[in-house]
Specification:
The chain is mostly helical. Helix content is 67%, strand content 0%. The protein folds into 2 domains: 97 residues, no CATH class; 162 residues, no CATH class.
């Protein structure tokens, strides 16, 4: 019990650190900047941040959300990304233990968090993020058995290749029919989702993401937060649908097949 709690705390702190790095990716990648150089600095006064300014979560709370040097406001998103990533790492450790599945799910949690926030804040699904995810997903499919993801297998990498193809073709058709209503970034993201979830869970991920997106869109229309002609980023909802599917897709699929 003590050992398990110690590992959980370790993964929690690791998640906080990783969340801090994800914030760097979310801030810099849309601007085409390197995530390594220059070192972390305040975007307002450009003062280089010291170690005491970079302690995940605790630095934000200590500084009360303001830069130590110029007192500019620090986006609260930085704290939430660190907190959520830390909590997710603890959850994943308790769920999968010290197994390859833990590493796979930690990676997907991170990359879909980055995709979620960049699309939410900038309306962009970046090729460099999606392509990196595709390469890693292919490596996972080749070298890490993932029977925990789906109950219906085609065998080896074919399961994930078919999933990626279905995701890509489905959204490619939707993009062509919508004539600009769906971006090409969503099409590439759907391919990544298919590679991550495999067949047949790619359908579940896309459907859950679409349902969440539709519910949110209707809410915005009713609340008059968005006009009928205003676009709503789809990437965040697809990312949510994918993570839900990766975590609970097996159980949802078993329930559905049993119900039918």
């Amino acid at each position: 019990m003590i050992v398990e709690t110690s590992f959980a705390l370790m993964f929690g702190f690791l998640g906080l650190e990783v969340g801090s790095f994800l914030n760097v990716c979310i801030d810099r990648l849309p601007r085409g900047e390197s995530i390594l150089n220059p070192p972390s600095h305040c975007p307002v006064c450009h003062h280089r941040l010291e170690v005491k300014d970079l302690i995940p979560l605790f630095s934000y709370l200590q500084l009360r959300g303001r830069c130590r040097y110029c007192k500019a406001s620090i986006p609260i998103r930085l704290m939430w990304i660190e907190l959520v990533t830390g909590a997710m790492f603890v959850f994943l450790y308790y769920r999968y233990g010290l197994t390859p599945e833990l590493g796979v799910m930690a990676f997907y949690t991170c990359i879909f968090t980055v995709i979620f926030m960049i699309d939410l804040e900038h309306g962009l699904i970046l090729n460099r993020v999606v392509y990196f995810g595709v390469v890693v997903a292919l490596l996972f499919a080749l070298f890490i058995p993932q029977p925990w993801i789906t109950q219906i297998k085609l065998g080896g990498i074919a399961n994930f290749a078919v999933g990626g193809g279905i995701g890509f073709v489905t959204f490619l058709i939707a993009a062509l029919i919508s004539r600009g209503g769906m971006g090409w970034g969503d099409v590439k993201l759907a391919a990544l989702i298919g590679l991550a979830t495999g067949f047949p869970l790619v359908f579940m991920a896309l459907i859950i993401g679409s349902i969440i997106g539709s519910v949110v869109a209707v809410f915005f229309l009713i609340a008059k937060k968005k006009g009928r002609k205003e676009t709503i980023p789809f990437g965040p909802f697809l990312s949510m649908g994918t993570l839900i599917t990766l975590l609970w897709g097996n159980k949802i699929l078993a329930w559905y097949l049993g119900f039918m």
